[in-house]
């Protein structure tokens, strides 16, 4: 049974007469798969991500994650979207700890083992090249740095499913390739399932096991190119 299953989904913004953003969307992602989603701008990639994470509920069709219908934001998911959304009144470290406060089963663990989680957040910051930036506020970080901090936030609660919507967009080429390696290692070591939206075919080919191609709007997945899965990793 796939970890993520989208069946015949239509999603309109602004109610029944609104903009059709995706239409007849079918997609499934196996447990442990690293899926890339590519397609022209406006075809509905971000909408797809928001459907899987429970930020949007479709008018037609079903979305399931780990066998449950998605009807509200899903707790086993970590997400990092294109536009960094850090809370400006919190330090970077406290932003990264946020999912632990939101996911109920982590909340009391966070209270009892705060020092451990702080250590873990600091280790994540180091992995993405932000060692020592935990005490800074979002406005003290560049766009690319905020994006990297967002990635730490997506990972802090060790999600089973990681949803990444162009998470490397604001990064310089050098940092981007470093983060590719971070994500790739994470996938290889922990077997987390990943869905990555990207405009960069080189990125998709380097990272993903499968490439799901969406057609022009209203988007549907028209083609799934499977890189051999599981893919041999050197
Ligand atoms: P992509 O991520 O592939 O660029 P999106 O999922 O953002 O595509 O958008 C799909 C379509 O839905 C586009 O036509 C876009 O303009 C429209 N759309 C996206 N978000 C909204 C919104 N909040 N309200 C109305 N239309 C939207
Ligand atoms: P992305 O490539 O991330 O989809 P967009 O420029 O399409 O970026 O959308 C940025 C934000 O604006 C998203 O939150 C999207 O939901 C919203 N948006 C996109 N198109 C529209 C629209 N036509 N009307 C209202 N909101 C929109």
From TrEMBL:
ABC transporter domain residues: 4-234
Keyword Cell wall biogenesis/degradation among UniProt keywords: no
Keyword list, A-Z: ATP-binding, Nucleotide-binding, Transport
InterPro entries: AAA+_ATPase (IPR003593), ABC_transporter-like_ATP-bd (IPR003439), ABC_transporter-like_CS (IPR017871), ABC_transporter_ATP-bind (IPR050166), P-loop_NTPase (IPR027417)
A GO MF term: ATP hydrolysis activity
Cell wall biogenesis/degradation found in the keyword field: no
Family classification: Belongs to the ABC transporter superfamily.
Protein name: Hydroxymethylpyrimidine ABC transporter, ATPase component
């Amino acid at each position: 049974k796939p970890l993520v299953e989208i069946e015949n989904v239509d999603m309109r913004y602004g109610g029944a007469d609104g903009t059709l953003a995706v239409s007849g969307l079918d997609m499934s992602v196996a447990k442990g798969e690293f899926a890339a989603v590519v397609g022209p701008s406006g075809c509905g990639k971000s909408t797809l991500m928001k459907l899987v994470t429970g930020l949007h509920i479709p008018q037609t069709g079903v979305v399931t994650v780990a066998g449950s219908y998605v009807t509200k934001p899903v707790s086993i998911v970590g997400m990092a979207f294109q536009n960094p959304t850090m809370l400006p009144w919190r330090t970077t470290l406290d932003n990264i700890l946020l999912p632990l406060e939101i996911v109920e089963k982590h909340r009391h663990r966070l209270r009892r083992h705060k020092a451990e989680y702080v250590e873990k957040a600091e280790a994540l910051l180091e992995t993405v090249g932000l060692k020592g930036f935990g005490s800074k506020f979002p406005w003290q970080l560049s766009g690319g740095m905020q994006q990297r901090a967002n990635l730490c936030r997506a990972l802090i609660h060790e999600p089973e499913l990681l949803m990444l919507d162009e998470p490397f967009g604001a990064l310089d080429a050098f940092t981007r390739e470093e983060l590719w390696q971070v994500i790739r290692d994470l996938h290889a070591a922990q077997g987390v399932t990943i869905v990555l939206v990207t405009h960069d075919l080189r990125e998709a080919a380097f990272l993903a096991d499968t490439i799901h191609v969406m057609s022009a709007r209203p988007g549907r997945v028209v083609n799934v190119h499977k890189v051999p899965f599981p893919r041999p990793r050197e």
